[in-house]
């Protein structure tokens, strides 16, 4: 039997739900599972072992946990590190000021007896909210905090948005916020991100994209929880449309706009 592996398409680590002491400390991690031929492992049960190593990629494991998961149709898995089945160490007791830390992941399928290492990467950015909780304060450093369109919920104080890099079926996809917006290439592309709540309560926020007929795109958003909401948009781009500029909007439960970001869809000849 060929050993399976996870192709990690996303290196975004985000600390979530940490502004109140009673709120669990978690890190969200997303990946896509593929076999050795590159084929997506669609709707397959897998087990993932997570280890946080201190000092180097072969350092001491300060925390170990496992997750029993089933991949989605697209092979996606979503881990909440710190919320799995703890095997060794205590996640809440990790001292993030004593960097560097490395994240090592292993994977096995049902008939396999041991975990195969599939990823070992440095956690380049210390999970800022985890570290900030110990430090007592955090500066989100964004220009939108003081000027939201809604004066009740503020971006940067009550929630943040973490974009994700994903692979296209027939090209490359790059996602970013700010002046560059989201970029996509010709074909059917998907961009995904997390709206992360920092209040310890369910803000019930959502995301919308304007300027596309319904048949040109579809969205698949997870249910909003006290931790936040995972959002996904899949967009089909016609070759004749060289550039499409539109807007991604974050709204509250009353459908009122909180903040908007530019979206730019570019046709790129990948040949």
From TrEMBL:
Signal peptide (UniProt feature, chain positions): 1-21
The keyword Signal belongs to this UniProt entry's keyword annotation: yes
Protein name: Vir protein
Keyword Signal annotated: yes
The organism's place on the tree of life at top rank: Bacteria
Organism of derivation: Parabacteroides distasonis
Alphabetical keyword list: Signal
């Amino acid at each position: 039997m060929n050993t399976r592996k996870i192709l990690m398409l996303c290196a975004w680590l985000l600390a979530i739900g940490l502004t109140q002491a009673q709120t669990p400390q978690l890190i969200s991690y997303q990946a896509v599972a593929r076999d050795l031929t590159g084929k997506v492992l669609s709707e397959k049960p897998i087990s993932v072992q997570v280890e946080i190593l201190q000092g180097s990629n072969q350092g001491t494991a300060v925390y170990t946990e496992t997750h029993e998961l089933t991949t989605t149709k697209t092979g996606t898995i979503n881990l909440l590190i710190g919320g799995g089945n703890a095997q060794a160490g205590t996640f809440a007791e990790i001292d993030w000021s004593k960097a560097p830390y490395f994240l090592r992941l292993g994977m096995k399928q049902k008939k396999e007896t041991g975990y195969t290492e599939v990823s070992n990467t440095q956690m380049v950015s210390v999970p800022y909210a985890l570290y900030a909780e110990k430090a007592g304060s955090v500066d989100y450093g964004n220009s939108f905090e003081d000027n939201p369109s809604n004066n009740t919920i503020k971006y940067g104080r009550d929630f943040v948005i973490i974009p994700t890099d994903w692979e296209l079926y027939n090209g490359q996809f790059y996602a970013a916020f700010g002046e560059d917006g989201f970029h996509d290439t010709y074909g059917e592309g998907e961009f995904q991100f997390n709206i992360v709540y920092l209040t310890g309560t369910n803000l019930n926020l959502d995301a919308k994209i304007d300027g596309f007929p319904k048949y040109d795109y579809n969205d698949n958003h997870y249910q909003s929880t006290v931790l936040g909401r995972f959002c996904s948009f899949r967009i089909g781009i016609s070759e004749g449309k060289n550039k499409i500029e539109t807007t991604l909007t974050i709204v509250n439960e009353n459908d009122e706009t909180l903040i908007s970001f530019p979206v730019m869809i570019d046709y790129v000849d990948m040949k």
